[in-house]
Amino acid sequence: MSCTQTLRGRKRPLCGAMMVLLVAGALSPRGADAQQSGDAENVELAKKLSNPVASLISVPFQFNYDQKIGPADDGHKTYLNFQPVIPIHLSEDWTMISRTILPVVSQSDISPGSGHQSGLGDITQSLFFSPARPTGSGLIWGAGPAFLIPTATDGLLGSKKWGLGPTAVLLKQSHGWTYGVLANHIWSVASVRSHDPSHPDVSSTFIQPFLSFTTPTAWTYGLNAESSYDWKHHQWVVPVNITVAKLTRVGTLPVSFTGGVRYWAADTPNSPKGWGFRLVATLLLPQH
Question: Does residue 111 have a pLDDT over 60?
Fold first, then answer.
């Protein structure tokens, strides 16, 4: 397109005028307001993503890598956790939040002579019943049952046990900060096969304290410890995760991308040791 126009026999430049109009349009109050509104919505979604019982449908795909597994430290493991979170409004005052964890696992040499396994692990299903609004002091909480479902496709990928127990979460959000704790305890109640000595009964407590900060540009910096205590063997494992996440848009779809490292602060002879890492892509479907 030519940047000149003939008017009464004279050529007059239009490029400067066109650029002024384009810049003015981009910087108009309406354009700036729209941009600020979109940024503010991203920040609010990022904060909601830090809340395990938020009114937000999210679908995380969480990839993890751990190493130095087993007595000889020869094993390594990769697993993708598919973790949909779906809130269901029961009334004006109560919401039930379904949180599912389905692991897809690939592991090698986790014990001497064990070789390689890949497939599904056991599903952990939690249901939190949570008030629709925070308390007067700003506390957000939820509680309900947790279930262990023996969906593992290989004996070394799961417990071969049906299990259940209580779960709860308590948190507070203020000035970009989110801090709280999520916990559950699961007891095994039945075996896939009766009298299976290779898979002992389960009595395990999971405690996850978490702390995060979301910036005005929708970056979130997080710290948590996914601690577990095995009451049958009286052993702790404590992997500590440090993460950085950014909420952005793919087209109109909000998506959060997370990267982080993990250090096993407490381990057992059969658990991972040292350092691992985590990558997460989370699709968000806000509820209006």
Answer: yes
Q: Is 31 a domain residue?
A: yes
Q: Considering the domain boundaries, does residue 268 fall inside one?
A: yes
When divided into structural domains, the chain yields a total of 1
Q: Is the confidence at residue 168, as pLDDT, over 90?
A: yes
pLDDT at 179: 98
Residue 256 structural domain? 16-286
CATH number at 156 reads 2.40.160.40
| Residue 2 resides in a domain | no
Two structure tokens written together for 120 = 């599904």
Average pLDDT in the chain: 88
Residue 38: predicted pLDDT? 63
88 forms beta bridges with 96
Tell me the whole-structure pTM to 2 decimals. 0.84
Q: State the first-to-last Cα distance of the chain, in angstroms, to the nearest integer.
A: 44
Q: What average pLDDT does the segment 259-279 reach?
A: 97
Query: Residue 147 corresponds to which tokens in the numbers above?
Result: 């279930």
In a domain, 132, yes or no: yes
Question: For residue 165, which of 137, 134, 143, 187 has the smallest C-alpha distance?
Answer: 187
CB-CB neighbours of 166 under 10 Å: 13
* pLDDT of 26: 46
| DSSP 8-state class, residue 120 | E
Q: How many CB atoms lie within 10 A of CB 23?
A: 10
Classified as helix, coil or strand, 82 is strand
Q: Look up tokens 């992997």; give the residue.
A: 239
Categorize the per-residue pLDDT at 287 as very low, low, confident or very high, splitting at 50, 70 and 90: low
Spell out where 28-151 has E strands: 56-69, 75-82, 85-89, 94-108, 116-120, 123-131, 139-149
Rounded CA-CA distance 196/117 in Å is: 20
